[in-house]
TrEMBL record:
Domain of life per record: Bacteria
Taxon lineage: Bacteria, Pseudomonadati, Pseudomonadota, Alphaproteobacteria, Acetobacterales
Organism name: Gluconacetobacter dulcium
Occurrences of domain Four-carbon acid sugar kinase N-terminal (ranges): 12-237
UniProt xrefs under SUPFAM superfamilies: YgbK-like
Pfam families in UniProt: NBD_C, SBD_N
Family: Belongs to the four-carbon acid sugar kinase family.
InterPro entries: 4-carb_acid_sugar_kinase_N, 4-carb_acid_sugar_kinase_N_sf, NBD_C, NBD_C_sf, OtnK
Protein known as: 3-oxo-tetronate kinase
Function: Catalyzes the ATP-dependent phosphorylation of 3-oxo-tetronate to 3-oxo-tetronate 4-phosphate.
Keywords recorded for this protein, A-Z: ATP-binding, Carbohydrate metabolism, Kinase, Nucleotide-binding, Transferase
Catalytic activity: 3-dehydro-D-erythronate + ATP = 3-dehydro-4-O-phospho-D-erythronate + ADP + H(+); 3-dehydro-L-erythronate + ATP = 3-dehydro-4-O-phospho-L-erythronate + ADP + H(+)
Keyword Nucleotide-binding: yes
Record-listed E.C. numbers: 2.7.1.217
Length: 434
């Protein structure tokens, strides 16, 4: 990414707990003027050559793995980012606070605090542009509490409590506090005073309220001197201005510039989220070609991937390959196969299919679902992504920065509107990558 002149030293080092969450965060940073690259996993050595940027986002697949392994991977990412020269560190998790009762948000936060020598961190998953807001420590999705939003039926991380102080408190060894909206609304100094008060009470992690972007900018300014910040991608809105105020970040008008990538296109959807189901249905209602990746057929040993490839060759236009289904059908499949096995079968099929589609000349991939995106990107052999303009809030166009160029849109389950698949295909074919 070098454009001549002195080598660009990264200022912000980010650790994301899934692949689509990483691109969501990277998109937010690019939109706020930071040239950003994303690595798929922790790079194997300490050489960051070819990744010159203002921010580096390390994408892990650690959201649902055992907490001790998530901690190990996150600390490895942190060490690599420290060696790369980053000054501030961001632990990014989902705007719906996806986690299991044992973690992994709490354990990873505590481990990173220890590694970076921090005694206070805020936790704020708010992303108002996508309807995720936090008020009095409770997380809302649109006008619904988190546990009434559909997330209570998530196959891997069912969220049945909207009170984030309780959710995070169950995952941590210490006490979780609250920075309420009245404090945030009073400004930066009020937030800092509240953090000092919480320290005095023995609290070291606090849920922070935010119902609008102005709240996120206030919080961002309040943590300008913190080594560690945690939250959803929205929490990153205010961080670039901190670096500008110190004269470390110049104004950048082409942070989102990407080279065009020509080739065939395909859509792969493994998410079972409410919005992804709507997006699949929108595609089907339009009479567009599609092929179902059925977990039960995979479990029976049927040649599902070969059938998918045959469909791709027959249609001669972008095909949607989807595993999405309704809640009742999903529950029936999980009851028969087990949630982990069902998910692994679909991920494996999507990964295998992506690799075969690449051999068929596909160079533009739209992928829905964090777990699916991780499996697909690894199968494609991509380890570095350059981040471009947003296709939808939280979903940027990206181009691989290593090997043969590929254009990818990696979408978290509930992101994007009903027509997202078409919107993304149009963006990758020219609009966002040209």
């Amino acid at each position: 990414m070098s454009r001549g002149g002195p080598r660009r030293r990264p200022l912000l080092g980010c650790i994301a707990d899934d692949f689509t969450g990483a691109t969501d965060l990277a998109s937010m940073l690019v939109a706020n003027g930071m040239r950003t690259v994303q690595t798929i996993g922790v790079p194997e050595d300490d050489d960051s050559a070819g990744m010159e940027a203002d921010a580096i986002v390390v994408a892990l697949k650690s959201r649902t793995i055992p907490a001790d392994e998530a901690v190990r991977q996150s600390l490895a990412a942190c060490r690599w980012l420290q060696d790369a020269g980053c000054e501030q560190f961001f632990f990014k998790y989902c705007s719906t606070f996806d986690s299991t009762p044992k973690g992994n948000i709490g354990p990873v936060t505590e481990a990173l605090m220890t590694a970076l020598g921090e005694d206070m961190a805020i936790a704020c998953p708010a992303l108002p542009v996508n309807g995720r807001t936090v008020y009095q420590g409770h997380l809302f999705v649109g006008h619904r509490l988190l546990n009434e939003s559909g997330m209570q039926d998530h196959p891997l991380t069912p969220m049945r409590d909207a009170d984030l102080t309780r959710v995070l408190g169950r995952q941590m060894t210490g006490t979780v506090g609250l920075i309420g909206h009245a404090v945030v609304g009073a400004g930066v100094e009020a937030v800092r005073r509240r953090m000092d008060d919480l320290r005095g009470e023995g609290v070291h992690v606090a849920i922070a309220d935010a119902i609008a972007d102005v709240d996120l900018r206030t919080l961002g300014a309040a943590v300008a001197n913190h080594r560690l910040v945690t939250g959803g991608s929205g929490m990153a809105i205010g961080l670039p201005d901190n670096f500008r105020a110190r004269g470390l970040l110049a104004e950048c008008r082409d942070a989102a510039a990407l080279p065009p990538v020509a080739g065939k296109a395909a859509v792969l959807s493994g998410s079972a989220s409410v919005m992804t189901n709507r997006q699949v249905q929108c595609w089907l209602d339009a009479g567009r070609p599609a092929f179902r990746i059925d977990a039960l057929r995979l479990a029976a040993g049927e040649p599902v991937v070969e059938g998918a490839l045959a469909a791709f060759r027959a249609y001669g236009e972008p095909v949607l390959f989807y595993a999405s289904c309704g809640v009742e059908e999903l529950q029936a499949v999980q009851a028969r196969l087990g949630a982990e096995r069902a998910g692994a079968l679909v991920e494996g099929a999507m990964a295998s299919l992506a690799g075969r589609l690449k051999q068929e000349g596909v160079r533009q991939f739209v992928v829905a679902g964090g777990e699916t995106s991780g499996a697909v990107v690894l199968a494609l052999g991509t380890r570095i992504l350059r981040i471009g303009r947003a296709i939808a809030p939280g979903v940027p166009a990206t181009v691989s920065g290593d090997g043969e160029p590929l254009a990818l849109a990696l979408k978290s389950g509930n992101f994007g509107g009903p027509s997202f698949f078409d919107d993304a295909l149009q963006a990758l074919s020219g609009g966002a990558c040209g």
